[in-house]
Amino acid sequence: MNNDGTIRSSMTLTRVIEHSEQSAYIEIPFDMPDRVEELFVSYRVQSHGEGKAVVDLGVRDPHRVRGWSGGARTEFRIGLEKATPGYLPGALSPGGWAVLHNAYRIPPEGCTVTVTIECALKTPRWLKGDLHTHSVNSDGKYTLEDNAAIMEQLGCDFIAMTDHNAISQNLTYPRNTSVVMIPGMEFTTNFGHSNFLGVTDPLRDFRVKDQDDVNARLAEARERGAKIVLNHPHCDNCAWEWDFGVDHDWVEVWNGPWTARNARTLAWWQSELASGRRLTAIGGSDVHRPDPYVKHAMPCTWVYASSKTVEGILEGIGRGHVHISYAPDGPFIGLRCGSFIVGDAVPAEETERIVTVAAEGLKAGDRLKLIGNSGVVKEADATEDGPLELSFDAGEANLSFIRAEVWRRFDVVDMTLMAALTNPIYFD
Predict the structure, then answer these.
(1) Furthest-apart CA pair in the chain: how many Å?
(2) Is residue 415 packed enough to be buried (19+ CB in 10 Å), middle (13-18) or exposed (0-12)?
């Protein structure tokens, strides 16, 4: 297991190249394992004798050459969605691959090439990022490169590019970043905003005049494969004033710094859950420009994803495997019921319904709350910095769901505000 939670398979191969092989193309074959998320290859050349060897670099998959950098690079990465310039992203099919070399100049004594191949396997893990951002492609001040660099500095894994009624950001995002760039668009009307996530071009025309037009736009985005989010639905300036019964997948419960508008959406979401609806809550910074309070990944949305890809992240959100903290280094609440995590439904035959909570990153004075159908069912205060654990028998309480929150006193604003919240575990 690597520091980022991924399982990696690595191998080191060597090949002696004789002077007689100068000008030849040489393959160093290797077997690509199954379920690879990213391929990383590096190489070094050790010349024998006094002459300097020049050996170029490339790679092929079982069907075609997937990239070539000549003598310009000593390493490259190929992922499912992004790759080092000169290389093609896409499926990393298992089977016979080969590192390619051009023996451009080989000294009389020959040389030895040492190739290191590392495969990051698809590993379910918690990834963190921001699901609502803007750039110079609409009314933001940050370039896409700025956004990616900031998210990398924060240690985040993904960012959704949701410029207002624009899709150009989805065609021009930087490929040389470790951050997954989720294509998106903020469907922006005069009476409410909605994010379309996961597709490059969700709409032909964003303009609407009535509810029928809104329904038609949502249907078009849905047909093209977009996930639909109701954004800041109880905002003071741009609330969702259309019908709440419109087609949507998720709701943005936490938009930017925690304020009354978020509290109103939280109360609405709680009432929806209590009515029996299973609706996933997400967060997003809605960052546009440098600001003392509205910043990237504040709040930070955590997703338990099957892979570090757009597909893996959106699938994880679809399962409700979502936790939100006020910042990337904010508290994390591990909420479980046996083998079930947030977003899961505990089946009726599972009569043992002991819920465990392992909250990390708490500060002394933080309050941890467990919340069910009718409100708080258990709470505890952290007496010191560090972890806090709780357990609760949800079966005895006859709950249809349980979720968790952490509240903290923030001295900078002299207020007690939400520091973290989870989606529910449901009970059939």
Answers:
(1) 82
(2) exposed
pLDDT category of residue 175 using cuts at 50, 70 and 90: confident
What angle is formed at CA 150 by the lines to CA 235 and CA 133, rounded to 5 degrees? 25
Q: How confident is the model at residue 5 (pLDDT cuts 50, 70, 90)?
A: confident
Which of these, 290, 233, 279, 283, lies nearest to 255 by C-alpha position? 283
- Report yes or no on whether pTM surpasses 0.85: yes
Task: Report whether the peptide linkage leading into residue 292 is cis, meaning its omega lies within 30 degrees of zero.
Answer: no
Task: Note whether 262 and 269 are within 8 A (CB).
Answer: no
List, in sequence order, every beta strand (DSSP E) within 345-400: 345-346, 354-362, 367-372, 375-381, 386-393
CA atoms lying within 13 Å on the CB side of residue 186: 28
- Are 268 and 245 in contact, with CB atoms under 8 Å apart? no
Cα separation, 365 vs 380, whole angstroms: 10
Is 216 in a helix, a strand, or coil?
helix
- Closest C-alpha among 321, 333, 395, 399 to residue 369: 333
Residue 70 located in a structural domain: yes
Where among 96, 121, 146 does a domain terminate?
Answer: 121
In this structure, the chain runs to a length of: 428
One domain for residues 116 and 171: no
Q: Distance between CA atoms of 390 and 7, rounded to whole angstroms?
A: 30
Looking at the fold, whether 326 and 395 belong to one and the same domain comes out as yes
Q: Residues 89-115: what's their mean pLDDT?
A: 97
Of the chain, the percentage scoring pLDDT greater than 90 comes to: 96
pLDDT confidence of residue 7: 85
Q: What are phi and psi of 181, to 5 degrees?
A: -100, 100
